Amino acid sequence: MSYFNYPRIIFDGTFQADPSTLNNTPNNYNPKNQIPESPDSPCPKVRSEVFTSQQQNNIELYWNPAGTGNFNLNAKITKIIYGPNECVNSPSEDPWIGQSIKSVFTVTPPKLVDLDPMQMNVSEVWAMTLGLGDNSSNFTGNFMPIGFVESWIQAQAVTPSSASASAIYQSLLIGLNDTNLSEELKNSKLIKALDVPNKALSINFNVRAYNVKPQIYQWNCDIKYQLATEGIPDEVISSLEPLLFYQMNAGQSLGQIPTPTYFNQQLKALLTPSNYDEYHEKIMVTAAMAYTPASQYEFSYGQAFGNIGPLAKDAADAPDFFTAARMLQPVTDEAGKQTTQYSHNYAPCQLFADSNHLSINLGNALPTLYPAGHFIDQGLLRLGYVNNTGDQKATIKDVTLLSTAPFNRSGDSLFEQGGIVDIQLTPEQITTIEKNPLTLVSVDDNQNITQILLSENPEGLFLRADQFVFRMNSGTAHLKRGGENQPDVYGNEVTVNIYARQFGKPLAHTEITLALLSEEQAFLYTNQTLGTGGTLGLVNISIPQNALNFDATVTTDLEGKASVTVKANNPGNPRAYIDGQVYFLSYNFKNEDYQGHGDDLVSIQIYQEQPGFGELTWDGSIGDILSQYGKLYPVMSQFDLSSYASVKLNSQKIKGVLLRNYNDPLYMPVVRDLSQDRIHMITQWIDKGCPLNSSDIHTNIA
């Protein structure tokens, strides 16, 4: 069914996520908000002065304004588990040990894509091909685009941030190609054992310890005076006066500019070529603030570790993006607060009755003190089961330990196993836990249970949607522009598949209820997420409420799957400068007491319809659309999208990237948030010769 299957490839390495943050706040979409150009508050002659943000029309840079949108994975195979008690971790045992697992591309890397500035907690990886092996000998698979899930604060001795957070990506590698493998690797035990049905593999990997903290450059009066004493001419310093009013976040001190790349870009834009060549290095050294990274990784990098395994032979109707088996959850009180000393997260597990073992993934479930640190020592860890208490929460006296060795106290062995623990069981234990909820507990040296860390739902229930991120075009039928087994462009109708399980088995003939989060609920949810929380301009979200139509109740089939048809209506333009609207669809068992992960929602963006395009001109509509993208997405700056002359000169190139496969790394815009209507508007405008205004149209007709 998933990456839990043997042979299981374990890998460890790094990831890079390099999004541009200019589109991280709705306020930046307002065309009135721009990078300052002509400030009128020169520095005083003597005293130091700190500027605070009083201007309402400044762009907020956030932490990575020059981001490329790239996502990269770069890891090594550290271990392969071929079966119970059969693993290898040395190149002398298996030629695959030490081989790379990394993004491979010919022109540009894969892309990290946010759904919407009001929903940045499901960042998706698009256009990623992974290669297993080295550059001269590898097999490749295409990663089916999906967002991260189950994000939480894992490192609990530091300030909550992306550096202390952890999340997972789970997807399929499809379109496997082994033609570039050497004979040694092609004939290896691993390739023969994979026996991949339907040419697909399951991949699950953690991303954590992301260094979101950039090098910051300070531009204030003191820096200007210091540069003057170092011999930088007044005309050079005066040219950089606009930097006094740059801001990373509204309400904070002005004159702070993040990342060497962006600061250098601004110097190049504001200085003459000769002054830039002569002085930019000294200016950057002087303006650089003291820097301490948020984790042990370089800026925009973090740790990635995980597992790859074959799909089961009976996985034809299994979900693509999660394991439909069993789920252990944090233990909470009646108010929903975790009762353990440290916070914990959800842990999927799967029972293999035919081989008498159980596999549980704790890589994203156990806490650490520091980013990418070892798991906290909470005593010896054991797996147990709860003597069925009905719908009551389990207590220590209700738990029976499974007769298996405890996990390593420090958690080192868990990490070396890709976060997964495989536990051998007796046939009698298998029979027992097939109808009783599982628990993860800590025990003392005498094997006495000290606390319950995680526990399965008392009724063994688990519910989740498979694909949970959708972009819909309300006035368009379902489109497709390539992308094997992956719809590129959704029109006005999508199908959401929801899977119900009880003790890991399909739960048939069960009613599932669905509801749209209200405007207030949507705001409260997205404003507390790691991705979107604290963003200014979260207004008019998830309205109008009649833009989505779906059945409020659906029933699972014999395989425990319920398919929900969701239809989109035109949401209009309630957010003014942001196209369309974003919605959140919740789901739950109708007649059962069940609490899933807080992020178990379906996020849907619906674009505004643009009926009857009328006269398409630069002045009338096209200029506004393209200028906004030019401002918010620096990676598109190869063309000056705010300049009519530049756009007309490069119009065929622009048309080319707009019409690429949606899952192509060269597709523009990077964040895939340009509606099909607007793409048609732009391409039709280009086909008609890029008219500037109505007079231009009439002149061309004449």
Description:
By secondary structure, the protein is an alpha+beta fold. The strands form 6 sheets. It has an 8-stranded antiparallel barrel with strand order 1-2-4-7-8-11-12-15. Strands 20-19-22-23-16-17-18-21 form an 8-stranded antiparallel β-sheet, with no helix packed on it. A hairpin with a 2-residue loop joins strand 2 (70-83) and strand 3. Helix 5 packs antiparallel against helix 6 (273-287) and helix 12 (651-658) packs antiparallel against helix 13 (676-687). The longest helix has 15 residues, at 273-287. Mean pLDDT is 89; it is low at 45-56.
- The mean pLDDT is 89
Lateral strand order in the biggest sheet:
1-2-4-7-8-11-12-15
- Outline: globular
- Alpha carbon gyration radius: 27 Å
pLDDT < 50 runs, ≥5 residues: 45-56
Fraction of residues in β-strands: 25-35%
Portion in helices: 10-25%
Total number of beta strands = 33
Q: Helix count?
A: 14
Largest sheet: 8 strands, antiparallel, barrel
Structural class: alpha+beta
Termini separation comes to 65 Å
Region (Disordered): 20-46
Biased composition (Low complexity): 23-33
What's the gist of this structure?
The protein has 702 residues and is α+β, with helices and mostly antiparallel strands.
